[in-house]
C-alpha cells in the first residue's frame, strides 16, 4: 500500500507539471495544403549508435528510441527488453509535457532528432497533426485497429483524432472525473453527500447553515481541462477537430450548455458557498488538506498530489472518492487527462516503432508495473476488468477501493476533441473565468468573447473556423 501511495504521488506530480506546462511548443498554424500522411521508414540500423538512459539488455539487436516521462517507465522498459529478443527500447526522458513538446517541435523543424516513439497527452496530439504537419503515424496501416477492444472506448476515440478508421497513438492512461468527499465533514453536520448538482447546491447551503466555516468546494480560475470536463458533463462540446480535415476547427463556447455550467457556479460563488482559489497552489493545498473544502471535483489522479502534500501519505485523510455529481440521468461520464504512445514521422523503422508502442504496456506484468509502481489509471480493458485492479486499496482514502467508483467512469467515457492550438485556448479560458468571477463580466458576454477570440485566432493561423 505504501508503494501504491508513492506511485500515485509521482503520477500526480507529473500531472501537475504537465498541467502547468500545458501543450507549449507545438505549431499552431495550419497549411492550406492539407492531409499528407506521415511517411513510413524501414531503416533497421539507424539507431545502432543511439544513446540511452537505460541499459540495453541485449546487444546486437535493433533499437527503437523512446521519449517518455511515465513514473516507473525505466522499469517498464527493462521488462520489455528482458522479454524481447527482436527489439530493444532505447529510452530517454525528453521532458514533461510542454518541455517535451517544445523539444519535439524543434526536432520537427530541424528534420531530425525526434524519437521513434513519443509520449503525448491526448490534448497535445492535434498540434502535431495540423495541415501538412502530419508528424504522427497512422497505426491502422499496421493492423492496430484489430486491437481496439484492448482499450476503453474513450481512449480509443481520442487517438483517432476525429477520423473514422485511423489511430495515431496507443492509449495508456486516463483521468476519470470523480468527486473527493470529506465524509467526516458531511457526517459532523448531518448533511447527505450530494449525487446531483441540485443536491450539491442544497448541501452547500445546509453545511453553511449548520455552522461549517469552509466551502463545499473550490472552482479555481486557473483550471484548464477541468473546465472542459465540467462543460462536457452538461452536454457542451466546445472543441471539434479532425485529422481527416486538419485545416478546419469548430469552436462552440457560446452555447446554452456552457452558460448553464458557468451560471451554476457563479450562483454558488456569489452565495459564499464555493471558493475560487487557484488549484494546486500553496494556499489551495493548505485549504483542501485542512478541511476548508468539503468536496473537490477532479480527475482521480489527484489522490497522489494530495497524499504527497500531506503530513502522512499513508494516514487516513478523511477523503473518499464518490461519483461526480450529475445534472440528470443523461449526464455523461467524463475524463480529465491521460496520454498515449505515438509513433513519429522520424521513426527509423516505423513498423518496429509501432510494435514497441503497442507492446511496452502490452503484457500483464508491464501493466501491473504501470498501475502499482507508476500509479497510472489504465486505459487497458484487461486491467480494468481484473480483480487485481478493482480491489486495490489506498491508505490515504481510508483503505477505500476507489477503483470500484473510477472504473465505471472510465468505461462509460466516450472521448473528447481538442484543438491544435489548445494551449492558446486554455489561456483564453483563464482570462474568461477571471473576467466573470473577478471583474464582473456577464457570463453571456464572456462566452461570446472567447468564441470570437478563438475563431479569429484560428483564422489568423490559417484554419477555417466555424
Describe it.
Residues 1-21 form the signal peptide. Helix content is 39%, strand content 14%. It has 466 residues and is an alpha/beta fold. The protein folds into 2 domains: 2-175 and 338-408, Periplasmic binding protein-like II (D-Maltodextrin-Binding Protein, domain 2), CATH 3.40.190; 176-334 and 418-465, D-Maltodextrin-Binding Protein, domain 2 (3-Layer(aba) Sandwich). Strands 1, 2, 3, 6, 11, 12 and 13 form a 7-stranded mixed beta sheet that branches. It has a 3-stranded mixed beta sheet with strand order 8-9-14, covered by helices on one side. A two-stranded antiparallel sheet has the order 4-5. Strand 4 and strand 5 (133-134) form a beta hairpin. The radius of gyration is 22 Å and the shape is globular.
What is the total tally of β strands? 14
CATH architecture of the largest domain: 3-Layer(aba) Sandwich
Structural category is: alpha/beta
Estimated radius of gyration: 22 Å
Largest sheet: 7 strands, mixed
Shape: globular
Q: How many DSSP H or I helices? A: 17
The CATH topology annotation of the largest domain reads as D-Maltodextrin-Binding Protein, domain 2
Q: Gap between N and C termini, in Å?
A: 50 Å
Strand percentage lies at 5-15%
CATH top level class name of the largest domain? Alpha Beta
CATH superfamily of the largest domain, called what?
Answer: Periplasmic binding protein-like II
How many structural domains does the protein architecture include?
2
Keywords: Signal
InterPro entries: Bact_solute-bd_prot1 (IPR050490), SBP (IPR006059)
Protein name: ABC arabinosaccharide transporter Solute-Binding Protein
Signal peptide: 1-21
Amino acid at each position: 500500500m505504501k508503494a501504491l501511495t508513492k506511485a500515485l504521488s509521482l503520477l500526480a506530480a507529473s500531472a501537475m507539471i504537465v498541467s502547468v506546462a500545458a501543450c507549449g511548443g507545438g505549431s499552431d498554424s495550419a497549411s492550406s495544403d492539407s492531409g499528407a500522411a506521415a511517411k513510413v521508414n524501414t531503416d533497421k540500423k539507424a539507431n545502432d549508435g543511439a544513446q540511452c538512459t537505460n541499459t540495453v539488455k541485449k546487444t546486437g539487436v535493433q533499437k527503437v528510441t523512446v521519449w517518455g516521462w511515465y513514473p516507473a517507465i525505466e522499469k517498464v522498459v527493462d521488462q520489455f527488453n528482458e522479454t524481447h529478443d527482436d527489439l530493444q527500447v532505447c529510452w530517454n526522458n525528453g521532458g514533461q509535457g510542454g518541455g517535451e513538446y517544445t523539444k519535439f517541435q524543434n526536432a520537427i523543424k530541424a528534420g531530425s532528432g525526434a524519437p521513434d516513439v513519443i509520449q503525448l497527452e491526448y490534448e497535445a496530439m492535434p498540434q502535431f497533426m495540423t495541415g501538412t504537419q502530419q508528424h504522427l503515424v497512422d497505426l491502422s496501416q499496421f493492423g492496430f485497429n484489430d486491437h481496439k477492444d484492448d482499450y476503453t472506448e474513450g481512449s480509443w476515440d481520442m487517438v483517432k483524432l476525429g477520423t473514422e478508421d485511423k489511430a495515431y497513438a496507443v492509449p495508456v492512461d486516463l483521468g476519470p472525473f470523480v468527486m473527493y468527499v470529506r465524509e467526516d465533514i458531511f457526517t459532523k453536520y448531518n448533511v447527505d453527500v450530494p449525487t446531483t448538482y441540485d443536491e450539491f447546491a442544497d448541501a452547500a447551503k445546509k453545511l453553511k447553515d449548520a455552522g461549517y466555516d469552509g466551502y463545499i468546494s473550490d472552482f479555481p480560475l486557473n483550471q484548464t481541462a477541468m473546465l472542459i470536463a465540467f462543460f462536457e458533463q452538461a452536454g457542451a462540446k466546445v472543441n471539434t477537430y479532425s485529422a481527416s480535415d486538419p485545416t478546419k476547427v469548430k469552436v462552440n463556447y457560446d452555447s446554452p450548455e456552457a452558460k448553464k455550467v458557468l451560471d451554476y457556479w457563479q450562483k454558488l460563488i456569489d452565495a459564499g458557498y464555493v471558493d475560487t482559489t487557484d488549484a494546486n497552489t500553496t494556499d489551495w493545498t493548505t485549504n483542501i488538506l485542512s478541511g476548508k473544502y468539503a468536496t473537490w471535483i477532479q480527475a482521480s489522479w489527484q489522490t497522489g498530489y494530495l497524499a504527497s502534500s500531506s503530513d502522512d501519505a499513508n494516514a487516513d485523510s478523511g477523503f473518499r472518492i464518490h461519483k461526480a455529481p450529475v445534472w440528470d440521468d443523461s449526464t455523461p461520464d467524463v475524463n480529465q487527462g491521460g496520454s498515449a504512445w505515438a509513433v513519429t514521422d522520424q521513426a527509423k523503422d516505423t513498423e518496429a516503432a509501432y510494435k514497441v508502442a503497442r507492446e511496452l504496456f502490452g503484457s500483464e506484468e508491464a501493466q501491473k508495473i504501470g498501475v502499482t509502481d507508476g500509479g497510472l489509471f489504465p486505459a487497458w480493458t484487461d486491467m480494468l476488468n481484473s480483480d487485481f485492479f478493482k480491489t486495490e486499496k489506498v491508505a490515504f482514502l481510508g483503505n477505500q477501493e476507489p477503483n470500484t467508483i473510477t472504473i465505471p467512469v472510465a468505461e462509460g467515457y466516450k472521448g473528447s476533441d481538442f484543438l491544435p492550438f489548445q494551449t492558446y485556448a486554455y489561456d483564453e479560458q483563464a482570462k474568461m473565468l477571471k473576467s466573470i468571477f473577478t471583474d464582473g463580466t456577464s457570463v453571456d458576454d464572456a462566452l461570446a468573447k472567447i468564441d470570437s477570440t478563438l475563431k479569429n485566432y484560428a483564422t489568423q493561423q490559417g484554419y477555417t473556423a466555424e
